[in-house]
Each structure stands twice: as structure tokens, then as C-alpha cells.
Amino acid sequence: KFFWSVLESFCNEELQLFIRFVFGRSRLPDEDEFMMPFTLCSFPKSGSPDAYLPESHTCFFSLSLPKYSSEHVLRERLMYAMTTCREIDADFLPQNASAQRRIGIEEEEEEDGGEDVCCIGQSSLL
User: Fold this and answer.
1) CA–CA dist 48, 34 (Å, integer)
2) Burial zone of 47 (CB within 10 Å; 0-12 exposed, 13-18 middle, 19+ buried)
3) Which has the closest alpha carbon to 76: 23, 14, 120?
4) What region, left, alpha or beta, does residue 75 occupy, with left being phi > 0 and alpha being psi -120 to 50 degrees?
5) Which of 80, 85, 75 is nearest to 21 (CA)?
6) Contact partners, residue 57, CB within 8 Å, separation at least 6
7) pTM higher than 0.70 for the full model?
8) Rounded Cα gap, residues 3 and 83, in angstroms
């Protein structure tokens, strides 16, 4: 319920960061080239919603947003995600294992015994 109010309060630079966060680019294509509508999705995690950051799905131009307790918390969490989560999927792989744990990266071995796969998960703020 707070999302649209927060989005309307963004300056142009913040709107650009938001588009980059949910779409993977700082600009949308021309209207005649773009057919994918923005989708706001429910956030299927348990526990306190204020403990989680929003999750973007750039391939689908969508945002999974927890039901934050206030507009202030939503703005704070969204701004944090938009300004610190600047890479898409596994494009950024920190070499330091503690840095990987801090941002929620887990390495999983493929079933065929091949290369490791990097999965970026949702981190709790608490």
C-alpha cells in the first residue's frame, strides 16, 4: 500500500536506479518496442517483513515486495537494495567467502559434478 507513494516521491536519479534494479537497465525502451508491463508481486517469505529486502526479477520486470510496516521502512529497504544491489544475477561474484555470505550467495555443485553454480539469495537484515 506504500509502494506507489514511495515511487512517486523519487527524484529522476532514484527512478533511474529503480528501473535499473527491476529491469537491469537504467532506461526503458521506447513504448513501441516494449511490451512487458511492470509487475508487483507478493513476497512469499516467513518472519518479519521488515527484516527482508525487496527482490527484483529483471527478466520479468517485476518486484517482490514484503508487506513492510511503514512507508519509511519500505523506502529505506528499497533505496538500500537499489543502491547496493547493482549487479544482475551472478554477474558479480565476490572472491571472499565472508562477503558471499554477507550478501546471501551460496555455491551449489551441479548434479552432473560440473562447475559450481552461484545463486544469489535473499538476505535478512536482522
Assistant:
1) 36
2) exposed
3) 14
4) alpha
5) 85
6) 22, 41, 63, 64
7) no
8) 17
Catalogue the active-site residues.
59
Cell of 115: 562447475
- CA torsion sign for 70, 59, 35, 26 is positive
Q: Which three cell numbers stand for residue 91?
A: 554477474
In DSSP terms, 107 is beta-bridged to 118
> Which SS3 state, helix, strand or coil, does residue 51 take?
helix
CB 8 within 8 A of CB 32: no
pLDDT tens digits along 4-54: 999 999 999 999 999 999 988 878 878 777 778 888 998 888 889 999 999
* pLDDT tens by residue, 47-75: 899 999 999 988 888 999 999 999 999 99
Length of the chain as a residue count: 126
d(CA 79, CA 85): 10
What contacts 93, CB < 8 A, 6 or more positions away? 100, 105, 118
Count of Cβ atoms closer than 10 Å to residue 24 Cβ: 16
